[in-house]
C-alpha cells in the first residue's frame, strides 16, 4: 500500500510538472489575459515554498540586473519619444517576473536535466501531432487558430456572406475559413501550412528545430542509444516541412547535420540503417508531395519569375503558399532607420516596426543601444550556462539551441519572446539545481 501511494503521488507530481512545462511553451495571451504568466504565478503560489531557501547565484542576479536595466532604458525611451509602447514594456516585465518566480517552482519539482528534456520533447511532440491533424483535417484549423490566438479574429464564430453560384450564402466557422483561405484572404492563415499549437508559422518551426536538437542530445549522451529519439527527430522534421520555407531551409540543414553526426558516431548498425532509410523516405516524400510548389517557390524566390501555370498571390502559390514574396522582397525588410538619432535610440512601436526580423524590430523600437542591451542579456545567459555544464554538453545542446533561436530571429521575434525565453530560463535553473545537488552529495560523501 505504501509503495502504491508513493507511486500515485510520484505520477501526480510529474503530471503537474508536465502541465507546467506545457503551459510555459504552448499557452498564449488573449487580450489582457496572459495564460503563460497566470500558470507561472499559480504554480509559484501553490508550490513555491520550498523547505530551504534558494540562494541566487551571482550570475543569476546579474541576469535580473540586466533585465532591470533594459526596463529602465525602455521606460526612458517612452518618455523621450512621448509614446506608450505597452507591448515592449510588458515583454520585459514578463521576463523579469519569470526570473523571480521560476526558481521557486523548479526547486519544488527539482527534475534532472534529462527528465526535463524528455518532458519538453513530449510537449513538442503534441505540437507535431497538432500539425499533422491540421493538414489531415482542415475543419480543425479554426479550433487550433482560436487556441493559439493566431490573429485578432475568432475563427470559430467568424462568418461571411458571399455570392456563390448567384446566391448569397452565409458561411460559418470552418466553411468560412476554407473559403477565405482558398482566396488567400484570411489574415495570417495559409492553406497547406500548419502552425500546430504555436503562435506563428515561424514559432512552430523553431520549436520543431528545438526538438531535433533536444532528441539529438538525448540520443548521443544516453547510456543506451534509444531508438525513440531517432523517431522523434524524424517526426519533428516531417511535421516541420508543413510550417513553411524557413523550416524547409533551416530545419533540413539542421536535420542533415544532426543525422550525419549520429551516423559518424554511431556503432549501432540497426540504428544507422534506420536513419538511412528514414532519410531516403523523407526525400522521396518531399519530392512527391511538394515538388511543384518547391520548384515554383525557388524560381520565384531567386528570380521573381512567376510560373504561368501556377497562380502566385499574396497567400502563396495556388493558395497553398510557402512563398509570400521573393527573396529580394524579404531582403528589403532588412533596412535601418534614416536618422542617426533613431538608429541609436529607436522611436517606433515594436509591433509596428518595419520588418518581421526581431533584430530589426528592436533597432527601430529601442535603437542600437537597446539591441546591445538585449544581446548582453543573452551573452550573460550563455556565460552562466557554461558555468553549469561541461563544454561537450554545451556544444551539443545549449549552443545549437541559442544559434537556432537567433537564426530564426532574422525572420521572427524571438529575443525575450514568450515561450522561447521560458524554455531557456527553465533549462538554466534545472542545470543550476542539478549542480547544487551534485555539490551537496560530494560534500556529504567527503564528510
Explain how this protein is built.
This protein folds into 2 domains: 38-108 and 333-447, no CATH class; 110-287, no CATH class. The protein is 68% helix and 4% strand. It has helices at 2-26, 35-47, 58-81, 86-109, 113-136, 141-148, 174-182, 201-221, 227-240, 245-265, 269-303, 327-331, 340-345, 358-388, 391-409, 420-446, and strands spanning 29-30, 33-34, 159-164, 167-172, 312-313, 316-317. The radius of gyration is 23 Å and the shape is globular. It starts with a helix and ends with a helix. Residues 152-157, 184-188 and 311-324 have low confidence and may be disordered. By secondary structure, the chain is mostly helical. 38% of the residues are buried. Helix 5 (113-136) crosses helix 8 (201-221) and helix 8 (201-221) packs parallel to helix 10. Strands 1-2 form a two-stranded antiparallel ribbon. Strands 3-4 form a two-stranded antiparallel sheet. Strands 5-6 form a two-stranded antiparallel sheet.
Strand order within the widest beta sheet: 1-2
Helix tally equals 16
Cα separation of the termini: 36 Å
Overall 3D shape: globular
Helix content: 55-70%
Largest sheet composition = 2 strands, antiparallel
Which strand-content bin applies to the residues? under 5%
Quickly give the structural class.
Answer: mainly alpha
Structural Rg: 23 Å
Secondary-structure element string:
HEEHHHHHEEHHHHHEEHHHHH
Please provide the count of β strands: 6
**How many domains?**
2
* Mean pLDDT across every amino acid position: 79
Low-pLDDT regions: 152-157, 184-188, 311-324
